[in-house]
Design a protein that fits this description.
Layout lengths: L2 H38 L5 H24 L14 H33 L12 H35 L5
Helix pairs in contact: 1-2, 1-4, 2-4, 3-4
Length: 168
C-alpha cells in the first residue's frame, strides 16, 4: 500500500468512526427524548436541539469519509463512455472544482464561526459557532485529502492509459 493510500485510508476510517459515533449519540438522544416524553411524561427541551446539532455534525463529518472513498454522488454516464484520457481530465476537473468549492466553504465557515461564536444555542450551553466549526473542519480535511486523491488518480490513469489507449 502506497503512502498516499495509507493517509487516505486513515482519514477515511477516522471520519467514518466519528460519524458513527455521532449516529450513536443521535440514537441515544432520541431514545432518551421518547422515554422522557412518553414514559415519564416530562418534556426535556435540550434533546431535540442536541439531536439536530449531532445530525448536522454527522453529515459534515461523514462527507470527509465519502470523499476519501470516492463514494459521493456522481453521474458516471459520460465518464463511462469517453476515452481514458478524457476520463482522466474530467476526473481531474471534478477534483479541481471540489477544491475550489471547499476553499470557499472553508473561508465562509471561518467567517460564520467568528460571527456566531458569541451566540449561545437556545437550550444548550454551547456556542452556535460550533455548528459552523464542523463545516470548516470537514472542508479542511477534504482539502487535505484532495492532493492525495489527485496523485492516486494520476497513478491509476497513467497505468490504464499505458495499458489501453482505446475507449471503454
Amino acid at each position: 500500500m502506497k503512502k498516499q493510500d495509507k493517509i487516505i485510508s486513515y482519514i477515511s476510517n477516522l471520519f467514518e468512526l466519528l460519524s458513527a459515533g455521532f449516529l450513536v449519540c443521535i440514537l441515544f438522544t432520541v431514545v432518551l427524548q421518547v422515554f422522557f416524553r412518553y414514559v415519564i411524561r416530562i418534556t426535556v427541551p435540550w434533546t431535540e436541539e442536541t439531536a439536530r446539532y449531532l445530525c448536522i455534525g454527522m453529515v459534515f463529518i461523514g462527507v470527509v469519509a465519502l470523499v476519501a472513498q470516492a463514494n459521493h454522488i456522481k453521474i458516471t454516464f459520460i465518464l463511462n463512455r469517453v476515452p481514458k484520457k478524457i476520463n482522466y481530465l474530467l476526473s481531474l476537473l471534478e477534483y479541481i472544482c471540489t477544491l475550489i468549492f471547499n476553499v470557499i466553504v472553508l473561508l465562509g465557515s471561518i467567517h460564520l464561526v467568528r460571527l456566531n461564536w458569541g451566540q449561545q444555542a437556545v437550550t444548550l450551553p454551547i456556542s452556535v459557532g460550533v455548528l459552523y466549526l464542523t463545516v470548516g473542519i470537514s472542508s479542511f480535511f477534504i482539502l487535505i485529502l484532495l492532493p492525495f486523491l489527485i496523485i492516486k488518480l494520476k497513478g491509476f490513469f497513467t497505468n490504464k492509459i499505458g495499458d489501453d489507449n482505446s475507449t471503454n
